[in-house]
Amino acid sequence: MIEDMNDDVAALFDPGNGWSARTRERLTDLPPELAELVLHLATSDVFWNWRYKVDTPWKRRTKALLKADGADGLVRHAVRELAAGGSFHDQDDPDRVIRELGQLKPASPARPLAIGFLLAAGWLRADTDGLSADLALVARKNSQAMDTYHRVDHDIAGAAFTALGDLPGPDAMEQLWDLHYRIPTALHPRKVLVKSVKRAAARLGIPAHEIAERTVPRHGLEADGTMTVGWIGRGVLWWNASVDAVVTLHDTGTVTVDWSDGGGPATRTTAPFRTPNGYRTPMRADCINLVRRYAQDIGKTLAAERIRLESLAGDADRTWSWRDWSRYYRDHPVTGVVTRSLAWEYRLPGEETHRPLDPAAAADAVPATARVRLRPAAAG
């Protein structure tokens, strides 16, 4: 019986997959209760699909099997190896410019097991040994939220998001805030990321106003307020668009799109971001519409942020740590535009008076112990 179970476990591993090779020795020749856990986790493909919804009986059985001696360490090892190298798909070429567009490969038989381990990680009793950081790294590598190329896997990314939403403790929450900032709004499993953020925040009792300021979409904009989209090998890694364009949010609050056909100077347009005459003919209309929609969404987010920040002007008791204010206000590519148009001040511990704060000042211009607030008399 034990031999049969271990034979079944060994059959789950894919000799052509790096994660399988790295974990095979640790995950085989196990005692019955751990072999049963591995076999159970490998059945995640029965329910885990584009809906990103965990089957309740499967979850209940997983939690029961995780009580076995050694189960905790087994899950942590599997997740740690998923975060290593090129993650599950072994593709992490920093110089790769032609992505696997349309080059779909047969799914590895080990993939459901990897997803099962990720989901199980959220139900461990403690976020220790860097577990939340490993889950976040898996999520970034499988959702194009890295500076180098990694093959996208929506199901793996969604499982990592889900696990972070279930994992107790503030470290997992910090990773979720960071992922919400990094992950493009166009990514399909981002919807499960949003749900995970809300679930974890509610568990920790984080107030609604903090959730609102920490979940403002970046819309793929870089620190300078630009986003470049283009054909394969050009533009942001997560969007292979059959059009060349640069979307820019300016400090004035104006959003522009520079359309280029590769043969001459770009043509700049503002809302509603119509293309130059004849531009649609050689380009794909769906990609053009997506660029326009992205530019419009940036404008909507900016307008909402302007209202939100101006509503804070009358609350003199609302303050931020220097770190949080810098991260969620000054350095945010959308919120930062509104931030720089308002008057701010800060106070150091033990001081009674506030000092004026230039939002455009260098990052080290204010001591890290400062508390920042909107200047009540001048914020409007």
Element pattern in H and E: HHHHHHHHHHHEEEEHEHHEEE
Structural class: alpha+beta
Biggest sheet, in brief?
4 strands, antiparallel
Helices, by number, come to 14
Helical content stands at 40-55%
Given as residue ranges, the uncertain stretches (5+ residues, pLDDT < 50) are none
Arithmetic mean pLDDT: 90
Beta-strand share of residues: 5-15%
Distance between the termini: 74 Å
Query: Can you tell me the overall shape?
Result: flat
Task: Give the strand line-up of the largest sheet.
Answer: 1-2-3-4
Q: Whole-number radius of gyration?
A: 24 Å
- Give the beta-strand count: 8
Top keywords for this entry?
alpha+beta; 14 helices; 380 residues; 4-stranded antiparallel β-sheet
List the SSEs and their pairings.
Blueprint: H1 2-10, H2 18-27, H3 32-41, H4 56-65, H5 71-83, H6 111-121, H7 131-141, H8 154-166, H9 170-182, H10 190-204, H11 208-214, E1 226-229, E2 244-249, E3 255-260, E4 267-269, H12 285-310, E5 320-321, H13 322-330, H14 335-339, E6 344-347, E7 355-357, E8 371-374
Antiparallel strand pairs: 1-2, 2-3, 3-4, 5-8, 6-7, 6-8
